[in-house]
Amino acid sequence: MGSGNWASAIVTPWHNSSIFNETARVKPAIVQNRFYAQTGYDHDLRAFCRKHRILYQSFWTLTANPQILAHPTVQRLAARFRHTPAQVWFRYLTQLDIIPLTGTTSAAHMREDLSIFELELAPSESDAIDQLLR
Ligand SMILES: NC(=O)c1ccc[n+]([C@@H]2O[C@H](COP(=O)([O-])OP(=O)(O)OC[C@H]3O[C@@H](n4cnc5c(N)ncnc54)[C@H](OP(=O)(O)O)[C@@H]3O)[C@@H](O)[C@H]2O)c1
């Protein structure tokens, strides 16, 4: 079962209680949420998902985050890897076990989206992007 548009404020109180385990007979396998600064990038909700072995899937990953894609940190990594900022961003997220849901009308973008696993960010590089999400 998949679910979407979860609000951190509703889910977070469940985090340290047993209510979720006790009341949910069928737990969602995946949660699809808007991934942007206004919700603190779902920091607490993602912790909840990790704890309950629920996959977290992001949408608006590119469209809501132009400031991340344009940030010198991401631009520098893109230049170093000879890939695009979007690819660096998507790969960073997959290394956090976030599954970016995207879409494209462009064959070139689709190829780029599918080839992000050519990259591997070092811990210090991921840490540098972490700072942009705070
Ligand atoms: N559950 C929900 O409530 C919900 C809400 C919103 C969206 N969604 C779904 O989420 C999916 C993704 O939509 P989204 O808007 O969230 O996606 P997104 O990743 O934020 O943005 C997609 C846009 O980015 C461009 N793009 C894709 N790959 C790119 C790349 N490698 N480099 C540069 N630009 C790239 C595409 O334009 P080009 O065509 O020019 O490549 C497309 O317009 C859709 O299937 C949508 O239905 C679900």
Set out the fold topology.
Layout: E1 2-4, H1 8-11, H2 19-23, E2 30-34, H3 43-51, E3 55-59, H4 66-69, H5 72-81, H6 85-95, E4 98-100, H7 107-114, H8 123-130
Parallel strand pairs: 1-2, 2-3, 3-4
Helix pairs in contact: 5-6
Bound molecules: NADP nicotinamide-adenine-dinucleotide phosphate.
Report what the structure shows:
- The chain is α/β, with parallel strands linked by helices.
- It has a single domain (2-133), classed as NADP-dependent oxidoreductase domain (TIM Barrel), CATH 3.20.20.
- The protein has helices spanning 8-11, 19-23, 43-51, 66-69, 72-81, 85-95, 107-114, 123-130, and strands at residues 2-4, 30-34, 55-59, 98-100.
- It has a 4-stranded parallel β-sheet with strand order 1-2-3-4.
- The protein is elongated.
- It starts with a strand and ends with a helix.
- The mean pLDDT is 93.
- Bound molecules: NADP nicotinamide-adenine-dinucleotide phosphate.
- NADP nicotinamide-adenine-dinucleotide phosphate (NAP) binds at residues 4-5, 32, 59-63, 84, 86, 101-106, 109, 112-113.
